From TrEMBL:
Lineage: Bacteria, Bacillati, Bacillota, Negativicutes, Acidaminococcales
Protein source organism: Succiniclasticum ruminis
Keywords: Signal
Gene Ontology biological process terms from the UniProt entry: DNA damage response
Keyword Signal assigned: yes
Signal peptide location: 1-25
Name of the protein in question: SIMPL domain-containing protein
PANTHER family xrefs: SLR1258 PROTEIN (PTHR34387:SF2)
Length: 238
């Protein structure tokens, strides 16, 4: 009985080893490659960040004066065909201000502030939006250039990256006397600078030219945006 059990155990171990070796061989019977594609794309939209701020001795006066500037600012944006859904008040505050003298705090007034994020989907409107906004007391913090539909470029680059990876895998397979089989596994990522920022000093320096030459609009260089796509693919070998 004991000998039969040992014999059965040996048979089971042999069968198990056979299947394991077959599985390992199947796992090795594939090729893993990576593919890459990159493109420099001209931005077609911009996001404007900035704020309106008013100070007064009385809180209600600061609030009311800011409300007037906010209404004027929105009127300017709507006049440039910027839809309401692209105008976002990201922060609003009304706070007291103090001065400190000889370790004593003294109330000096109140400051009301509204921070904005404005999407400008037509770059031809950007210069006019900046110039007219500055004219109604808007302070520009920065401008970020971007793409209205980044996914379109990413999808195109992913197709190119897959083609790049498949081509390399096919070359290696042919060199080894094999042919490329079905796709076993795939992973991907898209990287690159999603936006290109122009900081406050650059924007305000450009806008300051209005004081010297009233008819000269603010012009910013959007440059290009780099979009990258990377894929990791595993193919079966036949």
């Amino acid at each position: 009985m004991k000998r039969k059990c040992i014999a059965l155990l040996l048979v089971m171990m042999t069968v198990f080893a056979f299947f394991c070796s077959g599985a390992l061989a199947a796992e090795r019977d594939s090729i893993s490659v990576n593919g890459h594609a990159s493109a420099e794309v001209a931005p077609d939209m911009a996001t404007l960040y900035g704020n309106l701020e008013k100070r007064a001795a009385v809180a209600e006066t600061a609030r009311e004066n800011l409300a007037k500037d906010m209404a004027a600012f929105k009127h300017v944006l709507l006049g440039q065909a910027i839809p309401g859904e692209d105008i976002q008040t990201v922060r609003y505050s009304l706070q007291p201000e103090f001065s400190y003298e000889k370790n004593k705090r003294r109330l000096t007034g109140y400051v009301a502030r509204a921070d904005y994020k404005v999407k400008i989907k037509n770059l031809e409107k950007l210069s006019a939006v900046i110039d007219k906004s500055v004219g109604c007391n808007f302070t520009v913090d920065r401008v970020e250039f971007g793409l209205n539909n980044r996914s379109l470029f990413e999808n195109r680059l992913l197709e190119e990256a897959v083609a790049n990876a498949r081509s390399k895998a096919a070359v290696v397979a042919r060199a080894g006397g094999r042919s490329l089989g079905h796709l076993i596994h795939a992973s991907f990522s898209t990287t690159g600078n999603a936006t290109r920022a122009v900081n406050r000093n650059m924007v305000m320096a450009k806008a300051a030219s209005m004081d010297m030459v009233e008819s000269t609009p603010t012009e910013l260089d959007p440059g290009v945006i780099t979009v990258d796509a990377n894929v990791d693919l595993e193919f079966a070998l036949e």
